[in-house]
Amino acid sequence: MNTIRVSIIVLVASLMLAPSARAIEIIDSQPTEAAEKTEAQPEAAKPEAKAAEPCPSGVMEDGICVDPEALELAPADMPKPGKNVNEPVKPVEKKAEEKSAFAQFSDFMDVWITFTFSDDNLRHNDSFTPSIDINNGRHDFENSTDVADTHLVLYKNMDGFLPGVFTEAGLVLRFAYKGDGEYKLKDDGSFVGLRYAFDEEKKNYIEVTGFPLNAERFLLGYSYELTWGGKNSWPQNTEVVPGVRLTGHGQFGGTSFYAFAGLKTHQQTNRDELDSSSGASTGSAKTTYAGMFGGGVRQDIAVLDDTNLSIQLDVNGGFIQKGDNPMINELDLEALGEDTNADDIVAQGVSARLALALGDPIGDPLDLHLYRRDPRNLFVSPDDTSYKGSWAVSLSGDMTYMKENLRKFTNVAVGATDDEIKKGSIATTDFEALGIAVHAKARVFTDLRLHASYFYRNLEFLIFDGPHGDPPFYAFPENDQLNGSTLEISGEHRMRFNADYRIKPAHLVLGVGFEYLIPARKTLTDLDGNKYVTVYKERETSASSTYLTRQIRAVLPRNLEPSNIMTFKFMARYEFSKMLSAQLEVGYMEDFNMFKYEQVNTDLQKVYEEEDVTNPVSFALQLQAKF
């Protein structure tokens, strides 16, 4: 759909500091990047330094005295325990000697405007790959969500009346395009928070954060590709889900730790009540719950003079009540004397991460699609904090394991009794999902950054949320239930490499990227040896047919072998001024699983092996203003 979207992202963090120092902290919102990003206060928001006062630190920036220690930079790519990487912008915690730790006002501190001119396939145009357009949001091969979003954020915090009590709130709104020139306003993570600090430095505290409408920024897992517990965890749900989180944080010397417990609630529609036929929605709903728990510990060790080695271990997990399985008839449960709630789907899981970092933060790759994949992210170009120090390295690995009870695929024998048929119709089995991620990053010669990532996700993981099985609400059948046919399931392997180099005098960053994907697949072989292959290219988050029209899932013709997918990208970013920059991204993909539609008589038919579709060339140009 051709539209014009102007992305105005207003990030607000209000903090009043002593006359000698002022800084803010921006929390990195991408779990795949185990880092905490910190940048200087925007120039327009800095107070004027008083000429009569000396500068205690001796460090002046733009005529303002700055205390470097106030920034409290974290070690390279290591999130501080107790700070959720999915939280919105918050101010830096101040030192004990500073009397006013929180601002008493709310203001617009930062404005972002993004203009995009793009085409995900320059070689072919149809309804799935429209011709080059302004802000169409489909600027590379995956036909995913828009980069050019519009956000409005207002933030305020204040000292409490009681000693040690601090309060904060953020109004986070998002504009979404509806068509015909109309937009709708949606909540995108508004929150209220209450914190009690046990010490003046505020390093030991407990905090309650409530998300009254949308708790999508509160997820389990770490790499975004392996996160879970969002709104898509509830079957066929398109509404946001509220939540609340209690967090405790402590720090003793070089050791920091945190723990949290949270709750989400959702009104899930009943699709199979006793007075309705199987699978039919009655329109009524019941409250379902998700419990979320976790914690972590980090140890900082001084090595190599001023360089820190950080080791961090995090674990979280929980359960999610997903409501009725519409493929199990409660009338059959009642007839067999079973609990009529026995068909409720309950998901359980655990995630863990181990991260090591040596040196200062490295930052994210210069790659637009990483930010588009994670809707919580705002695109941020590499800044000076990504190039601090001549070298740095980091290594992290994380995993997620989940399971839920889905209907078991049963093939009832001919002549079975009515009770045997009913027992077969209510049988369930565990549907187990596993995802693994490994990330390695390095910065050498100050300006050269290298990123490498590997992901494994089994097929169950890719359809755990959204379809909730294949077919929906069913686990995969065993071969002995297929009347002689055989079913083979395999997961995906994804390898991603990025490198970029900053030419500082020219205000230019050049980068290249490569991704090799062995997609997940399901192969059914019949008695005659014919193979029917379905290829799954990405995680599915909808129970609708959207995944087919966008070719996230490709059903190949009989006996057509699936192919692996390669993507190459060239990227360049140039800064015209401190407020305006441009990013160019040109890509080439090889995907022989792609097809296009052609009119044959009165029918539309899929056509494979067309080079203009299987070998697309993409183009994207972004202009981004920040002031």
Keywords:
globular; 6 helices; 21-stranded antiparallel β-sheet; 627 residues; single chain; 4-stranded antiparallel β-sheet; 44% strand; 31 strands; mainly beta
Account of the 3D structure:
With 627 residues, this protein is mainly beta. The protein has one domain (7-626). Helices cover 5% and strands 44% of the residues. The chain is built from six helices and 31 strands. A hairpin with a 5-residue loop joins strand 8 and strand 9. Residues 1-53, 56-110, 137-147, 274-281 and 543-549 have low confidence and may be disordered.
What is this structure, in a nutshell?
The protein is mainly beta.
Q: Indicate the structural class.
A: mainly beta
- State the share of residues found in helices, binned by percent: under 10%
State the low-pLDDT regions, or none: 1-53, 56-110, 137-147, 274-281, 543-549
Number of helices: 6
Largest sheet: 21 strands, antiparallel
Average per-residue pLDDT, rounded, comes to 74
What is the straight-line distance between the termini?
30 Å
Percent strand:
35-45%
Described by its quaternary structure, the protein is single chain
